[in-house]
Each structure stands twice: as C-alpha cells, then as structure tokens.
C-alpha cells in the first residue's frame, strides 16, 4: 500500500479533541441543570438539544452557514471581535463536530446524573456543603462512568462528521481535509486504494471506541453488582 499524507488524520483528531472538550463542558452544565430542574417548556428545550440527532447533515450545515457565514450574526461578531472567520477553516469543522456530538454526550451525561441518588446530595446540603463542592465530590464521581462513555462516543462522532463539515469548512487539502472528506474526494477521483486506506483507519478508530465503551460498562456493572 502506498504511503499517504496523514494530515487528514491529525486534523480529524485535533478537530474531534477540541469539539469534545467544549461538548464536555456544555453538556455537563446542560445535563446538570436539566436533571435537577422542572420548568415550563422543558420538553421543548430538550427537543432542541437533541435535534441534530434527527436532522440531515445538510440542514445542520446550512444552519451553521447562516449563523457563522460572512454575513451571519455570529460570523460578523467573531470577525469584528477576534479577527477570524469560521467558514472554510478547520474551526468550522470543529463547530460542526460540536453540534453533532453534543446530543450524544448530553444523553449519556443526563442518564448518568439521573442515576445518582439525590439523597447523597441532600445529606451534604444539610451539613452546609456548597453546591459546587457537592457536584465536585459527590455527583461527578458517581456519574463518571456515564460521562466517560459519553466522551468516547462524542469523540468518535466528531472524527466521523462529514456532511455539515463539508458545507461549512469545505474541502481544502491540508487545511480542512478531515478523514471523512478525504474518503469522499478520493472516491470521487477514482482512487479506491486511498479511500480504502482511510476507511480502514476510521473504522478501526470507531471499533476501538465502541469496544472500549462496552468493556467499561460491563466492568462498571460488575463493580456495582459487587457493591
């Protein structure tokens, strides 16, 4: 097999890592709030958070262009305040990965938080412990296995993102060429060997991620069963 430029792999890993970091922070805050609060319109808010799961990637990409395009409200603000554009850059790819990964992470974290027995938190409150310390020392450690599973899935989803990335970041070799884009354009060019190479790479990453998540869940279930 020929030696290929591995820059699409490094770019995909960088995009997935950065988007997963922000997905982690945002989903943690959202899931914590949604798991402990009841308010009018909660179902609608949750539907909006999970909406990227059911939308076609082209719709997500179109929405991102409307928001972050040269004439989009967020695109104008970012260019005026920070001096950079999102469209046709790797940052656009990271934003696309963030949008498609957030629902997966949110669902995992929300389920993990809802499994935490609120009596442990209430006992701490009666002792005058602050909400931040309760979250840091009780809620987060007890929910960690679900959070970690969500992180792995979000990272894997970020690496595999294609449709929305193509619309907002475009295909610029060496700049916005992630692994999914490399597969598609190699296939379009008739380079089946190159397409197969990248398919094997990204499939291996996906299998490794899912295998690890399943292993971790079984291990956690066994540990809980012993306790």
UniProtKB/TrEMBL annotation:
ABC transmembrane type-1 domain: residues covered: 9-211
Cell compartment(s), UniProt: Cell membrane
Record keywords, A-Z: Cell membrane, Membrane, Molybdenum, Transmembrane, Transmembrane helix, Transport
Entry membrane topology: Multi-pass membrane protein
Source species, domain of life: Bacteria
UniProt KW Cell membrane keyword: yes
Record bears the keyword Membrane: yes
Pfam family, any one: BPD_transp_1
Chief location bin: membrane
Family annotation (PROSITE patterns): ABC_TM1
TM spans (from-to): 12-35, 47-70, 90-113, 134-156, 196-216
Similarity annotation: Belongs to the binding-protein-dependent transport system permease family. CysTW subfamily.
Function: Part of the binding-protein-dependent transport system for molybdenum; probably responsible for the translocation of the substrate across the membrane.
NCBIfam families xrefs: modB_ABC
Name of the protein in its database record: Molybdenum transport system permease
Natural source organism: Planococcus antarcticus DSM 14505
């Amino acid at each position: 097999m020929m030696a290929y430029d591995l820059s699409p792999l490094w770019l995909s890993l960088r995009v997935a890592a950065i988007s997963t970091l922000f997905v982690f922070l945002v989903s943690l805050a959202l899931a914590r709030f949604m798991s402990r609060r009841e308010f009018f319109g909660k179902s609608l808010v949750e539907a909006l958070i999970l909406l990227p799961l059911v939308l076609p990637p082209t719709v997500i990409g179109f929405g991102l262009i409307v928001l972050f395009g040269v004439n989009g409200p967020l695109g104008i603000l970012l260019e005026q305040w920070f001096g950079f554009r999102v469209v046709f850059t790797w940052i656009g790819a990271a934003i696309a990965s963030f949008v498609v990964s957030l629902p997966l992470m949110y669902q995992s974290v929300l389920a993990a938080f809802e499994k935490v027995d609120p009596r442990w938190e209430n006992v701490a409150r009666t002792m005058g412990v602050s909400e931040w310390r309760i979250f840091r020392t009780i809620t987060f450690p007890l929910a960690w296995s679900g959070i970690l599973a969500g992180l792995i899935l979000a990272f894997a989803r970020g690496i595999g993102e294609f449709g929305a990335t193509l619309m907002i970041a475009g295909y610029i070799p060496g700049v916005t060429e992630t692994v999914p884009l490399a597969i598609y354009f190699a296939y379009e060019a008739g380079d089946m060997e190159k397409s197969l190479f990248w398919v094997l790479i990204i499939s291996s990453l996906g299998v490794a991620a899912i295998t690890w998540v399943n292993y971790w869940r079984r291990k956690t279930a066994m540990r809980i069963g012993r306790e």
